[in-house]
Amino acid sequence: MQRLAGILAALGLAATALLPALSQDKAKPAPASPEVVQLFETQVRPTFVASCLGCHSKDNALGGLRLDAPVTPAMAAEIVKRVKGEGGKPRMPQGNAVLAPEKISAIEGWAKAGAPWPELKGMVGGKLWSLEPLKKPTPPAVVLKAWPRNSIDNFVLARLEGAKQKPTAYADRRTLLRRASYELTGLPPSADEIATFVADKAPDAWGQAVDRLLASPRYGERMARFWMDIARYSDTKGYVFTDDRNYYHAYTYRDWLIQSFNEDLPYDQFLQYQLAADRLVQGDDRHHLAALGYLTLGRRFINNLHDIIDDRIDVTMRGMQAMTVACARCHDHKFDPIPAKDYYGLYAIFASSDEYEPAISPKAVREPYEQHDGKFQAAKNEREATLRSEVKRLRETVKAGTATPELQKTLQGFRENELPNDAQRTALLPSFDPAKRDRLAELDKTMETLKGSYPPKPEFAHALREGNPRPGVVFKRGNPGSPGDPAPRHFLTCVAGDNQPEFPTGGRLELAKAITDKNNPLTARVIANRIWLLHFGTGIVRTPSDFGRQGEKPTHPELLDWLASSLMEEGWSLKKLHKKILLSATWMQSSDATEAAFLKDPENRLYGRQNRRRLEMEQLRDSLLLAAGTLDMSKVGGKSEELWTGSYTKRRAVYGFIERQNLPGIFKTLDFATPDQSSPQRFKTIVPQQALFLMNSPLAADQARALASAVTGKDETEKVVVLYKRLLGRTPTKAELDLALSYLIAPDKAALKADSQSGGAWRYGWGLVDDAQGRTAAFHEFKAFIDGQWRVGTKLPDPVDGWVFLSREGGHPGDPKHQVIRRWVSPLEGTVNVSGTLNHPGAVGDGVRGRIVHSRNGVLGEWIAQKSQAETKLTAVEVKRGDTLDFVVDCRTNENTDGFAWAPAVTLTGAKRQAWRAERDFGGPPPAPPVPLSKWERYAQALLMTNEFLYID
């Protein structure tokens, strides 16, 4: 907003018109969750500092607005409108510095949360509980001595007895096995597994059952997905403008996680590899390099290096240390002992590394490919160098005036820093030096041979390696253009002290060792808390990625320290920590509670019972497929695949393709963790869309069909029993059986009927406008949809009707009798506005004519575009239900070079500003109506929707 005052003056706008008349002095910050504080400090405040304070601060409050002080929710809502360019007022910041979409989204999220504004207080005194040295406490004595099964229970029972409460009775064996199976593998046990465990009278039966679950390859898949939330895993980069959005090798990081958890890689090494595998890997085994995906698979921020590094600092410090270090980007942390110098010391560490994509497969696969690819790249590089040399020589002949007109014309077809395309190269070849021409032919042949004979391709990783060590410096107010004091590469001073030496080389390995140092009080506490959260649904610290003052304090600090100390004593083994928790009486409690106990401790902060939890998205999907017998668990690892739509994979959900920018709605409906940033835990919502998914999604219907067809028995009673065992691991009660039979035996009067599906408000075809009548005289709908185009038939040009087609952006008319028509059919009565741009980009030809024809009122507008574009706006067009607006394009006189772009929008005026946008709404033919479910299929689907199936007790 630096130039805003001058621009406003030029536009003749008063500065006071910037915002509504709202009093900022009375703005009181709304209360904020730790997540919203994190959003504000890491994304919103830095944006205000970088883009807004030049015009909206204490010294220059243009329009009465300050963005260095709290604002009201109404002002925040207006700010959102301004940065989005809505409301018919100047977009902010004005000029060329339009905010990136992700920054606008962050401001919008902050505004919707009530525009909280954390106070910039001085540092709160006193040492943080989480920074106190870690010492293993002695389990306390308890009155109910018979209840504890291990030391965990002493800590929990002592708190319960202090509050004059008692623990809940143990859950039954079926519930225990189902709970443990979901927590450790993400899948339910089979009916046979339940029956075997229930019948096992051995004293260590439960311990053996836990060991079997921990030894299952499904354990690694479950734990990998748990960690992928923390690592903000995605198969794509997010918004990158025109760059390639895909992380093609992201899956190798996920597969590394699965293998590491299955092998029980010590947790300290697990962290070290994710920060500095390139410094730790030795010899020919490179598979650990995939671990660096923890750092490299974040958002790309349109390749803004400062934001990329900020993201890496955040995922490292919140994910591994539960400290919100990214809040110190613009100033010293205002709540925790983290100066900006610490932030920029870490910044210098990550800035000293370069990205690369090494092959990580075994040497026997890797080396033949690398050698072959080296030959191909050498031939390619020589070919490119030869072409450049010859093109440069020919351009010199142009400058000397000795080139032919044809040669000059060809050379003008591409820029000096570009290589000629195939057609241009063919035209230039006769002018090349004969020896160079022959060499190019040899290289082409060599490349073609090599291209067709590549050995098997190895797997690759998105990794980092040490670059030139970068000296650190504090950016004043987070502005890279305003360097301040030096910030040597070092770890957090609140952990390692003020006198630590600067890290040598890049510093990532030293950082990894500092994080996993046995004297670091954070690391073991953080992971012990996360594992507890996995088994209880809540952490001992309920803000698992914030152990600072903005986070919550632990409910059982001694228990947390005991778990963390035990983890380190036992070689950082997570499997041993899992087992310790699952063998405790605390974990084995039922989730049922008396009314009195619930009233005394409604949030179960004392852990006097288990917490009932709904299945997570991946557990739900996997359980649906497993129950139906369609889940593919034939292998571990592999490339990511589509989970929900089309020919969706039957593999486990952990192998699903995660699209960061356009995450499908079902992920959000089922509370999937956002891949935009490290997620400490998943939100828990109960909304109608979750039930609607189970009722209407093709995947759920497919599994209900497969489940019903897989259930066999001599009669309906036996089939119901089989279905219950398959879904719920038990037999039905008499009441449940009677209810099922009364439904299944009764006549099927509720068979679903398939509704025909329309293609929306738009139709696509060709026809003719009667110039005399000013009406569309004929409209023929296109029949073929190929390669994103509506056409007359399968061939283009059509043998009879020529080049006539429509696409998302525009299309091509045929001869004067074959005019393309994009028809909008009004679904309501009202007044609409029409907007759009008719563009004829061709360099030759007589251009195109665009007309908008109303079914009752005739031609409403006509425009010509010839090597130009024309705005096609209409206002206050009255329509009734069923009226049509035809957007007609004809070739004028000659259809040659008449490709055009015209994707209009029709907007309803008034309060409901509904819009129909041709580009957004464009699509192929509607899908075929779903096949109705049979009565047995509907019954199976109903059981899939029961709380007993969807919840873990």
From TrEMBL:
Residues 152-354 form the DUF1549 domain. Transmembrane segments: none annotated. Residues 507-743 form the DUF1553 domain. Residues 1-23 form the signal peptide. The keyword Secreted does not apply. It comes from the Bacteria. The keyword Transmembrane does not apply. Keywords: Signal. PANTHER family: CYCLOINULO-OLIGOSACCHARIDE FRUCTANOTRANSFERASE-RELATED, F-BOX DOMAIN-CONTAINING PROTEIN. This is Cytochrome c553. It comes from Armatimonas rosea. The lineage of its organism: Bacteria, Bacillati, Armatimonadota, Armatimonadia, Armatimonadales.
